[in-house]
Amino acid sequence: LHREQALAAIAAGKHVLIEKPIALTAADATEILAAGRAAGVLVAEAMWTRYLPQADVIRQMLAAGTLGEIDLVRADFGSLVPFDPTSRMFDPALGGGAMLDLGVYIVAFASSIIGPPSTIRAVGTLAPTGVDDSATIALKTDAGAQAALTTTFGAVTPVEATVFGSRGRLDVLAPFYGPTGLRLQLHGADEEVWHDDALPTVHDGLGYQATAFASFVGEGLVESPLHPHDEVVSVLATIDEVRRQIAAD
Q1: CB 11 within 8 A of CB 39
Q2: What is the DSSP string of 93-136?
Q3: How much of the chain exceeds pLDDT 90, in percent?
Q4: Are 3 and 25 in contact (CB under 8 A)?
Q5: How far is it, in rounded angstroms, from Cα 231 to Cα 71?
Q6: Which of 51, 109, 150, 237 is deepest in the core (most CB within 10 A)?
């Protein structure tokens, strides 16, 4: 219902924050975002990870070249989800599948580090309803940076992310999608660890996104500077291709 309800809200002149993923496909995302731009309203995908304090620290490290040349991004997100053909997790009509529910986090994280991929390779498994219930993904950019990503409904995984560069590595502590902390290990230097203990629970971190969205509205923006429209579409395009390859395997 994301596309239908977002277009209705935009047509009513409302700013819209749309739960991730913003739509089922890159084409639908493009339509929603174009409608928002034409109407002059702010439309953003609720990828709350992008607005956390640790995400800002990561952006600063990348800008400063702290990790050197980025070579590899690794991320996983697996959860044990019992099969139920009527649930939103497994019903194709409800946007079911591991990639749209969990996988969007790992692809979006890789995108935030290395940008859009030029090469996508994926293998995985399908649930009896035909939706993907696991995926192992390899991405590569034109610059040669790579990502190794995994998601599954069949097991609980560490839910961690790591960025590897020529000068060292940065671990995003579990669960990497929420406010947790960072571990930095540069070659020849002592390990540095920062824990984000500012909030009582992980999902209180959604407040950062709400505050950012309100500030963007106040500034008259029509897209998030921390999560631009082009990237929202690119992430869904990657998910589209991953799902296509798994279904065709």
Answers
A1: yes
A2: GGT-SHIIIIIHHHHHHHHHHH-S-SEEEEEEEE-TTSSEEEEE
A3: 100
A4: no
A5: 20
A6: 109
Strands 168-172 and 161-165: antiparallel
Tens digit of each residue's pLDDT (9 = 90 or more) over 87-144? 999 999 999 999 999 999 999 999 999 999 999 999 999 999 999 999 999 999 999 9
pLDDT score, position 173: 98
Q: Which residues pair with 124 in a beta bridge?
A: 135
Strand locations in 8-58, DSSP E? 16-19, 43-46
Task: Tell me the one-letter amino acid at 35.
Answer: A
- Verify cis geometry, omega within 30 degrees of 0, for the bond prior to 117: no
Selection from 231, 212, 218, 184 nearest residue 17 by Cα:
212
Enter the tokens of residue 199.
């909030």
pLDDT digits (tens, 9 = 90+) for 217-249: 999 999 999 999 999 999 999 999 999 999 998
The structure tokens listed for 9 are 């809200």
What distances in angstroms separate CA 70 from CA 113, 146, 195, one per listed residue? Answer: 8, 9, 23
Res 164: pLDDT: 98
Q: How many residues does the chain have?
A: 249
DSSP result, 159-176: --EEEEETTEEEEEPSST
CB count, 10 Å around CB of 9? 20
Residue 157: both structure tokens together: 């995984």
Integer Cα distance of 109 and 180 in angstroms: 15
